[in-house]
Amino acid sequence: MKNSIYLSIIALLFLSCSGGDDDSENAEPTVPVLTLPADNKLCVDNTVSFEWKQSKDKNKSEIIYHIEIALDNQFTEIVETRESYSNSQEIELYQNTAYYWRIKATNSEGLSSAYSKTRKFYTAGEAVVNHLPFSPELVSPVLNTTLSTTTASLKWNAADADGDILNYDVYFGTVNPPVTKISENNAAKTTDVALQSAKEYFWRVVAKDNKGGETVGQIWRFKTN
What we know:
Layout (H helix, E strand, L loop, with lengths): L1 H17 L14 E4 L4 E3 L3 E7 L9 E8 L7 E7 L3 E5 L4 E11 L11 E5 L13 E4 L5 E2 L3 E7 L8 E8 L7 E6 L3 E5 L5 E10 L4 E3 L3 E5 L1
Parallel strand pairs: 2-8, 10-17
Antiparallel strand pairs: 1-3, 3-6, 4-5, 4-7, 7-8, 9-11, 11-14, 12-13, 12-15, 15-16, 15-17
Organism: Flavobacterium hydrophilum
Protein name: Fibronectin type-III domain-containing protein
InterPro entries: FN3_dom, FN3_sf, Ig-like_fold
């Protein structure tokens, strides 16, 4: 009998200490996956339909999506921000403009996912026969990284809504902005450079199509030990 009483007391103490907490812990939603418009898309209508795959939340909390649309792939020139509880949104934008977009998901507890991968698209303009290339995208070296080598391969990506062949001019040096052109009309999306120790380097790429269109990329930087 006494043993039964002792066991009952222990059970009650255990329950009071546990507080009846739910075993599940809240976590941020999964990262949204962009579906429309397709990457590098030329949109003939400047009212653009955006769609993405819904995020999942561990505790099935309500999710709101935060949409950012910018004129540059670093999102320093954001022109539209929207919030949506659904996985689609229609937004009217300017014609003949290159845009970059991304989305993150936030649950009702205030926890947010990382941003989705960035996609880019172009809105067509009236009587426009050529669209400028998209701004070059950094591949390597990683922005603001520090290298311990005497050489480096500068690498980037670029695309054109018209599918035009692209060539590149590369500016590189220790002044900001870089003014020394180290490569001209380069068909490859990479070029090698020699480095000195204890320096900060700046570089940018100009993407040029075969119809005279040019887009000057942003300035990237890295350091050496």
